[in-house]
Design a protein that fits this description.
mainly alpha; single chain
C-alpha cells in the first residue's frame, strides 16, 4: 500500500530533527574561479575566503594536499585556516560524501589549466 501522506509516526519524528545545513552552491563559474585560484598557487587565506564557502574550499585544499604539484603542508595549513578540523580524516570524509566538488572532474581540469600558457611560474 502506498502512502500519499507520511504515516503519523513519521510526522511526529520530522519536527525533532535538526535542520540540515544548506549545501553550498557549486556552479561552473565558481568551479572555474577556484581552478584559477589553485592553478596560480596563491595560498593566502584572504584570497581563498573571498573565493567562496570556507568549508568547501577547505575540502578542496585538503584534496590538493594529496597532489604532487602542491605543497602538502601548506595546503593542509590553509585548509585548517579556512575550516578548523578539515584536515582530520573523518571531517574530510564527510566533506567528500556531501560536497558537490567532484575530484574526478576537478583535478584534470586543474592540471590542464596549470599547463596552459599565461600563468606565472610556480
Amino acid at each position: 500500500m502506498a502512502w500519499l501522506v507520511p504515516p503519523p509516526a513519521a510526522k511526529a519524528r520530522s519536527g525533532k530533527t535538526r535542520a540540515a545545513r544548506p549545501r553550498p552552491r557549486w556552479s561552473r563559474r565558481l568551479e572555474e574561479r577556484v581552478i584559477e585560484l589553485c592553478a596560480r598557487g596563491d595560498y593566502r587565506p584572504s584570497r581563498w575566503l573571498r573565493a567562496g564557502d570556507p568549508r568547501m574550499l577547505a575540502g578542496v585544499a585538503v584534496m590538493l594536499a594529496s597532489q604532487e604539484s602542491f605543497a602538502r603542508t601548506r595546503m593542509l595549513a590553509l585548509a585548517e585556516r579556512l575550516h578548523a578540523g578539515m584536515s582530520a580524516p573523518g571531517e574530510f570524509g564527510r566533506w567528500l560524501a556531501r560536497s558537490p566538488v567532484q575530484a574526478v572532474r576537478f583535478l584534470p581540469m586543474l592540471k590542464a589549466r596549470m599547463r596552459a600558457p599565461g600563468l606565472p611560474a610556480r
